Amino acid sequence: MPRTIQILPDAVANQIAAGEVVERPAAVVKELVENSLDAGARTILVRIEQGGKRTIRVGDDGSGMGREDALLSLDRHATSKIRSAEDLRGVGTFGFRGEALPSIASVSRLSLDTCARGEVLGTRIQLRGGMIGSVEDVARTPGTTITVETLFFNAPARAKFLSSPTAESRAVSEAIIPLALAHPGVAFALESEGRSLLDLPPAADLVERVLQLWGEETAGKLIPILAQDGEITVRGVIQRPDATRPGFRRAHLFVGGRPFREAALLRAADRGYRTTIPEKNRPWLFLFIESPRGTVDVNVHPTKAEVRFRDRKAIEELVERGVRAALEVPESAATFEARPAPPVLRVAEPPPRRLSPAETTERQMALFLTRYGADAAAEGSGDEVGHQPGEGEEERGAPPRLWQVHHAWIVAEVRDGLLLIDQHAAHERILYERVIGRFEKGGEVSQRLLFPLTLRLTAAECAMVEDLKGLLQRMGFEVEGFGGDTVIVHGVPSPHPYFDSERCFREMIAELTVGSELTRAARNQHERLAKSFACKAAIKAGQALMAPEIQELFDQLFATELPYHDVHGRPTTVRLGLGELERRFGR
Amino acid sequence: MRFTITRQNLHQGLNAVSASLPSKTTLPVLSNILLETTADGVRISGTDLDVAVRIRVAVDVVEQGSLTAPGKKLQEITRELPEGPVEVSTRGEQIELRCGRSHFKLNGLPAADFPTLPDIPFDRGWTASGSNLLALIRHTAFAVSTEESRPVLNGVLWELRDREMRMVATNGHRLAKMTIPAGPSQETTTQLIVPPAALQHVQRLFNESDTVQVARGGNHLGFSAGGTEVYTRLIDGTYPNYEQVIPKDNDRFAVVERKGFESAVRRVAAVASEQTHRIRMKFEDGRVEFNVLTPDLGEAHDELEVSYTGEPLVIGFNANYLLEVLRYVGTQEVRLGFKAPERAATLEPVSGDGEAKRDYLCLVMPLRLVD
Questions:
Q1: Is residue B345 part of a domain?
Q2: Do A444 and B370 touch (CB under 8 A)?
Q3: Does residue B83 sit in the same domain as residue B57?
Q4: A19 exposed, middle or buried (CB, 10 Å; 0-12, 13-18, 19+)?
Q5: For residue range A282-341, what is the model confidence (pLDDT) as tens digits?
Q6: Residue A77: its pLDDT value, please?
């Protein structure tokens, strides 16, 4: 019998690998830009034509390669990035499989110009369908430029699946954005047919990079997040609750500086936002996860879009906790100005150099050092304008001056300006956390009534009351069925002196029975009840308050976990900074 | 319209009336007072549509007429006018004041724009002594409810029984009831539910020595004495049967020295929750023990000697309700009655030497912690 199994020639193997790694121009760009970053480039210029279908050119000022290295780089599994399987655990560079360049070369006409730093003469290698055509000397500055032309010229089936040039250009841009976010200190540019699609000069930090990409309105409404658990750290910036919108979101996750996708982590972040934003809203997130060597496997997917954590639950919890903690601080409150000053996380970028895995981590950490680092004070950076440490504590310590205006809002004078507080929203937050506390730690005190409330309800409402009897009791409502459609309330909570218990009870039961946006957004029965009660029982707009009551409301609000956000996903507080005031008066 | 009045009479009249003007209103004429001449003088009226105050002053009228004018402005002006006769006159919709060398003109609105005050047949009403009326109001009106869902509880129940007047007020958490043996003899009991705002005007405008004429006209009630009249809308509805909730079977009684007891409640309440003001008391033979425990704040323990009869009892209250009621009970000693920790407690005055006997009873509903 004739032998039918054969070892494939390299060219074919590369084409097969290309099928996994290189499915469209954007993937080529991603691989090449990652190579540039791994080479320590400070400036990366990408030019495409026809959405990359005709030409893709990625040039950098990285370390470049000598001729031998350059030739070797076109062999499969030739890489400078790892040396042994051992190195795979804790990979700090983007590439390491050694597949990308040969794969791309196998499905295109590729030319590689490179010049190692310190050398005068560079090398130009030209390939066609993965076969080396020529190797010659070329004069160029240190760095590497790779030009990919007529992608998939020898794989017409794949070429057919490419979209329009516009769609492919957009995909290229989307491939660069995560890398640009992870490397704010590196300049990126993307040009298509001579038109600039991205122009990102070196930025001081992540926030400035976001500002370059999406403008002040986005960057100004970001709040920093930092959460640490043992060796795992989550840092980054997330959208302020009042800036969130439904629909499209930007959510970029990085581990060790490497972009990845993980729906479960986004869900964890969304959980952290719970009650502070309307349920449909999708907050923007830029989160950098640092996990020690060996706890994360990035070698799951050829394009490395997915990673595997040894303990994903722990990371999810950390993300949720980090988001929640970020929403506790005054910076998470809505501000008066449409374009507030972006949060400050400045740090000087380290000098250009080839990064080792450990150094990558350090560099990512450094992004946030002036914001959180212990040595921030020692550095004495004068540009920490946007950050007021301990503002919340100060608010609690020396009582600020408070006024009620239009029987609906409270104005508070604080160190750096004014807080405008919605009395109803603030009281909702207070009552919500109080009721949740009652469910967890023992019941509310119930005021017995001289004239028990005899309430006629619908059959569904009666059934609801019967179901919730135990929980209602813990909230302070002592209820008993009276047969038929009547219930009797013997005792009620007294959350404030203007409380109308009958109205609150009726409205709450009606809402729980029929359902509302508010109750549907709740995670469980406890939350549902607490939200509904908070909403119905809270002091209404229009209620005049006496000075001690205003003070009490203010103090209680800032004793809650999330004082800046009510339970509908609206702000309780809007900040009006002195800076903004001065700006408006032209001072 | 033209008349001359002393500065003092004008100012007193304006003071009495302008307190009834609404502080905020969408009807401009309501921030005005109405000035009308009558056969023997002038009437000054003000209203917020719920309650109205009218003052009659005897003056020499030169020319009949009527006009409304800004009440607060007139009040501010007359406060600072020099003593002496003030000549008040109108020209069109302007009112003029002349007093010595002072001369003011204010824009007014036609009298026809002013709401008509209810017609109260005072000759077919009854009388109450100022001291009785004021005592009833003072001891009950504090207890009215502010909840909108039970409007009847927003008012004070005034019952005219056979040779007895009684006022009751409650917000469902505590109740105050006072009865005074006075009034006309009648077979049926008349029940009136009076807004507390009107009673405040009665307290403000009438003296203990006045004999107050009271009469009902339709859904309104009028009070009148010495040229001063207060009109009010009555609250519709049936007052709940308060007699039914007054415990008849309380069998545990404590008699406490009021000042000492109040003071103890006040000091332990300092540690009570700002929201519920809950304190707990344990009554047993010869003593009462106070306990307050507020997580995040601290705790308080105290003890007083009291005379107590009955089974020991632990009961919780909103300290504010207790303190309020104790203050109105007023006597040196107060008797507290209980049945069970979830049942109403009674507080009554114990008349000592030289203290007037009062038929006064307060109920306070306890607070319960449901676990």
A1: yes
A2: yes
A3: yes
A4: middle
A5: 899 999 998 887 777 776 666 667 788 888 888 899 999 999 888 888 878 887 766 666
A6: 58
Q: Do B269 and B223 belong together in one domain?
A: no
Q: State pLDDT tens for residues A571-587.
A: 899 988 888 888 888 88
Assigned domain for B273 exists: yes
Q: List residues in chain A touching B: CB distance below 8 A.
A: 434, 442-451, 473-474, 476, 478, 490-491, 494-503, 506, 552, 556
**Does residue B15 sit in the same domain as residue B72?**
yes
Q: Which residues of A touch B173 (CB under 8 A)?
A: 447-450, 494
Whether residue B371 lies inside any domain: the answer is: no
Cα–Cα distance for residue pair B229/A312, rounded to 1 Å: 79
Number of domains in chain B: 3
- Identify the DSSP state of A318: H
Tell me whether residue B369 is in a domain. no
- Structural domains in chain A? 10-200 (3.30.565.10), 206-335 (3.30.230.10), 445-492+499-537 (3.30.1370.100)
> What residues of chain B, 268 to 307, have a C-beta less than 8 Å from chain A?
273-276, 278
Two structure tokens written together for B131:
């001291």
Assess whether pLDDT exceeds 60 at residue A266. yes
pLDDT digit string, tens, across residues A371-416:
333 333 333 333 333 334 344 444 444 567 899 999 999 999 988 8
Helix, strand, coil tally for chain A in percent (to 5): 40, 25, 40
Q: Which of B61, B89, B113 is the last residue of a domain?
A: B113
Give the strand order in the sheet containing B228-233. B66-70, B32-37, B41-47, B51-58, B228-233, B220-225, B211-217, B126-129
Complex confidence, ipTM: 0.76
* Whether residue B73 is found in the same domain as residue B171: no
B94–chain A nearest CA distance, Å: 33
Query: Domain of B130: which CATH number?
Result: 3.10.150.10
Please, which residues have CB within 8 angstroms of residue A582's CB and are 6 or more apart in sequence?
none
Instruction: List the single residue in B175, B273, B342 with the smallest CB-CB distance to A448.
Output: B342
Neighbours of A380 (CB within 10 A): 7
Nearest to A241 by CA among A371, A317, A345, A335: A335
B79 and B166 share a domain? no
- How long is chain A? 587
Q: Are residues B290 and B323 in the same domain?
A: yes
CB contact under 8 A, A494 and B275: yes
**What single-letter amino acid sits at B63?**
E
Listed residue (A502, A385, A408) closest to B152, CA to CA? A502
For residue range A137-161, list pLDDT tens digits in order. Answer: 888 889 999 999 988 888 887 778 8
User: CA nearest B343 in A: which residue?
Assistant: A448
Of B54, B82, B113, the one marking the end of a domain is: B113
- Kindly state whether B363 is in contact with chain A, defined as any CB-CB distance less than 8 angstroms: yes
Domain of residue B348 covers: 246-364
Alpha-carbon distance B202 to B224, whole Å?
A: 9
Residues B128 and B215 in one domain: yes
Cα B371 from Cα B365, distance rounded (Å): 19
Q: What is the per-residue pLDDT for B279? A: 94
A285 beta partners: A238, A251
Owner of token pair 């590196």: A186
pLDDT tens-digit readout, B139-167: 999 999 988 888 999 999 999 988 899 99
| pLDDT range class, residue A18, cuts 50, 70, 90 | low
Indicate whether B306 and B267 sit together in one domain. yes
Return d(Cα A296, Cα A288) in angstroms, integer. Answer: 13
